Amino acid sequence: MGEQIPFTIEQFYKHMLQGKFIGGKCKKCGKIHLPPRPLCDKCFLNEFEWVELPKNGKLLTYTIIHVAPPQFQGMAPYAVGIVQLENGVKIPGMIKGIALEQIKIGMPLTIDFGTCAATQPWPQWPRYSFKPA
Amino acid sequence: MKGKPLVSIVSAGLSKFGKIEGLYARELFAEAAKEAYERCPNLNPKKDIQALFVGHMGESYEHQGHTGATAADWAGLLHIPAIRTEGACASSGAALRAGIYAVLSGLCDVVMVGGVEKMTHRTTPEVTEFLAMASDYPFEQWHGITFPGLFALMATAHMHKYGTTEKQMAMVAVKNHYHGSLNPKAHMQKEVTLETALSSRVIAWPLKLYDCSLITDGASCLILTKPELAKKYTDTPVHIVGSGQASDTIGMYEREEFTSLKAAKLAAKKAYEMANVKPEDIDVAEVHDCFTIAEIIAYEDLGFCKPGEGGHLAEKGETKLGGRIPINTSGGLKAKGHPVGATGTAQAYEIYLQLTEQAEKRQVKDAEIGLTHNVGGSGATAAVHIYRRE
Ligand SMILES: CC(C)(COP(=O)(O)OP(=O)(O)OC[C@H]1O[C@@H](n2cnc3c(N)ncnc32)[C@H](O)[C@@H]1OP(=O)(O)O)[C@@H](O)C(=O)NCCC(=O)NCCS
Ligand SMILES: [Zn+2]
């Protein structure tokens, strides 16, 4: 992939809308940034390469949200958790496709990319989620 | 020597905390300022106070930003330099730290630091949204994670790793409500039973209503000066002898562990070192119990017990008035209330009362050294201060 594609949050979500789940890997220290960043916080370098992220991971912790902000009220109660991907990188997200009481720490999950209407005002980020692997 | 003074607190003020209908942030701040002026007749506010640092988290509540100048005006302090500090729920812990910078730099002899938030006129879903703004938007808020949700993620992880129980968390609420029942300025001044707390409705599992702090209106302030000038204003100054502040990733998900707050541990380490005191030396502390699990984690991060033992400390009553180390004698964020921007200096206000023997029914006997622990967001900001009586 070309060097000219910016290593940014915006680009992370653009990639996801194209069906690509990729982070930025620092060419010096090897740290994989999710989201990609324009400056490596470890070595201050700005040279990265795109690396594919594993779609599978395991659940590190979770909660069931009952009191939600206005735009999520219709979905409550819903589960959110933090997932550690197979390469060690962590990412939070909703957990769907499973009964809430069956969710367990350590369970294998896989990511669903979600969609986003092109007419939506900023931000045009898909709402990905996790489901049992 | 234990605790060489950095700066001295010569007065402090606190508005009534609660659902204060009809009063906006600036008006609440005036109430806190008035108490601080009245406590310190030797202070001539207009002549003596040279700068104001005021913590305020959100302009969304009142559609009003620019809180520095507004608070200075309503406190009768125009035309001194006045700025707002923002570090989520640690906004006024950061204001206190900024005031210390100002006095220690030599630029100011006397400053006011404080904080304010007006919250209760908005609906709970609105408040939930405004509070969430202190967490990461692209990856946390965007995916429906709330503030109680972030601390619930820590609670689930703590329960899984250490076996901490919902009962232990509820015990924190029972204790803080008992302390709050002794504080005439607290938002909720009623005791609760363990059964009530444990059976309350779920907000973000495993956190229930009684695991959550309150949505509250309120303001707080302190008057700081150089230690050598303190006696000009009062016979009973309280010295700040240690100050630590630290930051961490805005996204909680990026951190190495979810069962402690690195920023709080780093801030505490700095503050202890500066003050030359150890956790065992602390007689009374106000810690950031935005959720009961946060108080349990605070015990561990501050060294009051080992990692994983926080739940037992709460269960054994060691942190209750009369216990080994009374914590949140004010009622804490749980019962005194949590007007987010006001909380950091409101904690300092309680320690000021304790160390000057003015805490009435909740006085900790012979308290000499106190500590405050103020956390912003899910721990991206933390400020720890250590205080010593004259
Ligand atoms: C827990 C929470 C969602 C409850 O809000 P709510 O569902 O709208 O509750 P209401 O305001 O309708 O209050 C209903 C009753 O519960 C009581 N109540 C509200 N919050 C309470 C709490 N945290 N603890 C105990 N009682 C509470 C109210 O006093 C009221 O009692 P009443 O019927 O006797 O008058 C809300 O208090 C909250 O979001 N707290 C957390 C705030 C927060 O995240 N702060 C930042 C942390 S860093
Ligand atoms: Zn690097």
Task: Give the arrangement of secondary structure elements.
The complex is a heterodimer of chains A (133) and B (390).
Chain A: H1 9-17, E1 22-26, E2 32-33, E3 48-52, E4 56-65, E5 78-85, E6 90-95, E7 108-112, E8 129-132
Parallel strand pairs in A: 6-8
Antiparallel strand pairs in A: 1-2, 1-3, 4-5, 4-7, 5-6, 7-8
Chain B: E1 7-14, H1 25-39, H2 45-48, E2 52-55, H3 67-74, E3 82-85, H4 91-104, E4 110-117, H5 124-132, H6 147-162, H7 166-180, H8 194-198, E5 202-205, E6 207-208, E7 218-225, H9 230-233, E8 238-247, H10 262-275, E9 284-286, H11 292-301, H12 310-315, H13 332-335, H14 343-355, E10 369-376, E11 381-389
Parallel strand pairs in B: 2-3, 2-4, 9-10
Antiparallel strand pairs in B: 1-7, 1-8, 4-7, 5-6, 8-11, 10-11
Helix pairs in contact in B: 1-3, 4-14, 7-11
Zinc ion is lined by residues 26, 28-29, 31, 40, 42-43, 45 of chain A.
Written description of the protein model:
The complex is a heterodimer of chains A (133) and B (390). By secondary structure, chain A is mainly beta. Chain A has one helix and eight strands. Chain A has one helix spanning 9-17; strands at residues 22-26, 32-33, 48-52, 56-65, 78-85, 90-95, 108-112, 129-132. In chain A, a hairpin with a 4-residue loop joins β5 (78-85) and β6. By secondary structure, chain B is of the alpha/beta class. Chain B has a single domain, classed as Thiolase/Chalcone synthase (Peroxisomal Thiolase, Chain A, domain 1, 3-Layer(aba) Sandwich), CATH 3.40.47.10. Chain B is built from 14 helices and eleven strands. In chain B, the strands form two sheets. In chain B, strands 3-2-4-7-1-8-11-10-9 form a nine-stranded mixed sheet, with helices on both faces. A two-stranded antiparallel sheet of chain B has the order 5-6. In chain B, β5 and β6 form a beta hairpin. In chain B, α1 (25-39) crosses α3 (67-74). The radius of gyration of chain B is 19 Å and the shape is globular. The two termini of chain B are 14 Å apart. Chains A and B meet through β4, β5 and β6 of A and α5, α6 and β5 of B. The structure holds coenzyme A (COA) and zinc ion. Coenzyme A is lined by residues 89, 124, 128, 131, 147-148, 203, 209-210, 212-215, 290, 338, 340 of chain B.
